Amino acid sequence: GENVEQHPSTLSVQEGDSAVIKCTYSDSASNYFPWYKQELGKRPQLIIDIRSNVGEKKDQRIAVTLNKTAKHFSLHITETQPEDSAVYFCAAKLSGGADGLTFGKGTHLIIQP
Amino acid sequence: DTAVSQTPKYLVTQMGNDKSIKCEQNLGHDTMYWYKQDSKKFLKIMFSYNNKELIINETVPNRFSPKSPDKAHLNLHINSLELGDSAVYFCASSPQLAAYNEQFFGPGTRLTVL
């Protein structure tokens, strides 16, 4: 099955700086890579996703890049704000679709004022 | 207008008991899932249901049984609860089984086994 590694487990940045979270996946058959944000006590919510036929996608301060050859993808948050503090999860889904999402272990992002 | 709802939000019970968690989605989605989030926040897929048929069962003990009376509901029944079952359980749904569909999560059920 698929295996997703995520780093770092904790990331502390100054407000206004950028944050980068990296993930690698093992199964080359995966073709969908979403990122979820989970605030304390809340449900995971999708913030951005990317398909395997795209190398980069941007939505305001958030961007995701995908390198299929190296099997890694990254989340970039620019101009970080206090409300960006949360746990972020990367995930991968196999092209067959029968499996659910395989998640990374999460990154606790802390925005220092 | 909640898209994916779960009940109860909190569940505290004794070891050995049997309990159920209910999930409903009003999005008209074909596929529903159950995920378990442990104390370290690790999210892991337990089951997928597509049009009332079980698609996968990821090494989950057979004490856990998903039940889907119709496409909008996927309930989770747990027999003989153990301490290790304590976790937050999330239900989710997606439009279709295809890979590119966003999954929408319910609010979660925090299960505590004493």
Query: Major beta sheet of chain A, specifics?
Result: 6 strands, mixed
Largest interface: A-B, 27 and 25 residues
What class do helices, strands and sheet pairing of chain A give? mainly beta
Span from first to last CA of chain A?
41 Å
Tell me what the structure shows.
The complex is a heterodimer of chains A (113) and B (114). Chain A has 113 residues and is an all-beta fold. Helix content of chain A is 0%, strand content 58%. In chain A, strands 2, 4, 5, 9, 10 and 11 form a six-stranded mixed β-sheet that branches. Chain A has a five-stranded antiparallel β-sheet with strand order 1-3-8-7-6, with no helix packed on it. Chain A is globular, with a radius of gyration of 14 Å. The mean pLDDT of chain A is 94. Chain B is mostly beta strands. Helices cover 0% and strands 51% of the residues of chain B. Chain B has no helices and eleven strands. Chain B has strands at residues 4-7, 10-13, 19-25, 31-37, 43-50, 53-57, 64-67, 75-78, 87-94, 104-105, 109-113. In chain B, strands 2, 4, 5, 6, 9, 10 and 11 form a seven-stranded mixed β-sheet that branches. In chain B, a hairpin with a 7-residue loop joins strand 7 (64-67) and strand 8 (75-78). The N and C termini of chain B lie far apart (34 Å). Chains A and B meet through strand 4, strand 5, strand 9 and strand 10 of A and strand 5 of B.
Could you give the topology of this structure?
The complex is a heterodimer of chains A (113) and B (114).
Chain A: E1 4-7, E2 10-14, E3 19-25, E4 30-38, E5 45-51, E6 56-59, E7 62-67, E8 72-77, E9 86-94, E10 102-103, E11 107-112
Parallel strand pairs in A: 2-11
Antiparallel strand pairs in A: 1-3, 3-8, 4-5, 4-9, 6-7, 7-8, 9-10, 9-11
Chain B: E1 4-7, E2 10-13, E3 19-25, E4 31-37, E5 43-50, E6 53-57, E7 64-67, E8 75-78, E9 87-94, E10 104-105, E11 109-113
Parallel strand pairs in B: 2-11
Antiparallel strand pairs in B: 1-3, 3-8, 4-5, 4-9, 5-6, 7-8, 9-10, 9-11
